[in-house]
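Whiteboard transcription, Tuesday session. T.W. wrote the structure tokens on the left side:
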């Protein structure tokens, strides 16, 4: 596996001064409705250029985060990156109504758990981004990867993207959220589908625990298993829909970092979940040709008129 640091490519601009000082740290990039396609396309085009290759490894220091050049600010939150992925002018990363027609969002917290106070921070932080959307962060006190996990609710089923490293009680955190959502909606049960951005260990370690929850099913880890579950006939070029019940996700195959990697596009809130393929930090590439094609696929998808307001990755660069 090669890892690459992306510095100074066309279309990527410096983050704001607050991010440089580490005052606002984030795994997410804001893309405004008017310029979102062009901004993301520029960032993706930059990622598709051949990077400098530093060597082999799993979670290295020293990367810079990417910024898409036009927009309304970095998502709020401390806890990892030496610089945040920002889109133009600074801001707190608050919500506003997405162009997809969903309810106003809750934005992001002022501070993510960051492993600096293991005596008090929870194993899993739960943040309600919107009424039907939750972001969970596994504490770095449990594992240095500190991955982000996403929980999306539809009328008929809920989807969890990734299960963490297995070193924290993610299943308990997810069940607590599910129970509260069921009570608020007058339901007694809901199907829980556990999917993965890709099958590396820090994203699948909690599969057994999540799979033991009521009404839960875990999608397999191979590209073939992902194809079969989502009904993808032509991997990796075919983009398919997956309906949670009144909430449609676009499933986009993006191998390169790992052979079974997918992105999810949430039409309800204009979110693009990119896993380990695009996030503010050092990107690890297993197959460079596949990665370039996957980046082009994402670029074409967004450029084709699919609205994206936030790009949500699964890690924050942890170097200083």
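and on the right, the sequence the group agreed on:
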């Amino acid at each position: 596996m090669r890892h690459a640091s992306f510095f100074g490519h066309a279309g990527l601009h410096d983050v704001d001064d607050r991010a440089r000082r580490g005052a606002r740290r984030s795994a997410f990039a804001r893309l405004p409705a008017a310029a979102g396609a062009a901004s993301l396309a520029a960032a993706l085009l930059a990622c598709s250029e051949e990077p400098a290759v530093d060597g082999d490894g799993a979670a290295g220091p020293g990367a810079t985060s990417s910024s898409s050049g036009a927009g309304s600010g970095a998502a709020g939150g401390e806890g990892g990156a030496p610089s945040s992925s920002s889109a133009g002018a600074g801001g707190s990363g608050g919500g506003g109504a997405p162009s997809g027609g969903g309810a106003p969002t809750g934005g992001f917290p002022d501070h993510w758990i960051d492993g600096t106070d293991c005596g008090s921070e929870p194993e899993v932080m739960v943040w309600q981004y919107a009424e039907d959307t939750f972001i969970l962060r596994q504490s770095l006190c449990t594992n240095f990867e500190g991955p982000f996990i996403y929980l999306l609710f539809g009328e008929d089923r809920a989807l969890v993207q990734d299960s963490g490293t297995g070193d924290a009680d993610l299943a308990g955190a997810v069940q607590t959220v599910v129970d509260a959502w069921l009570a608020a909606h007058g339901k007694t049960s809901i199907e829980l589908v556990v999917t993965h951005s890709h099958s590396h260990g820090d994203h699948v370690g909690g599969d057994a625990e999540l799979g033991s929850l009521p009404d839960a099913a875990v999608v397999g880890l191979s590209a073939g298993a992902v194809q079969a579950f989502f009904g993808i006939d032509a991997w990796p070029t075919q983009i398919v829909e997956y309906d949670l019940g009144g909430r449609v996700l676009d499933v986009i195959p993006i191998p390169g970092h790992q052979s079974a990697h997918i992105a999810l596009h949430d039409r309800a809130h204009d979110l693009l979940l990119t896993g380990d393929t695009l996030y503010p930090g050092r990107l690890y590439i297993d197959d460079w040709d596949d990665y370039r094609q996957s980046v082009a696929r994402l670029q074409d998808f967004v450029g084709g008129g699919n609205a994206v307001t936030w790009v949500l990755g699964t890690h924050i660069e942890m170097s200083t």
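Someone added at the bottom: Residues 44 and 295 are 6 Å apart (CA to CA).
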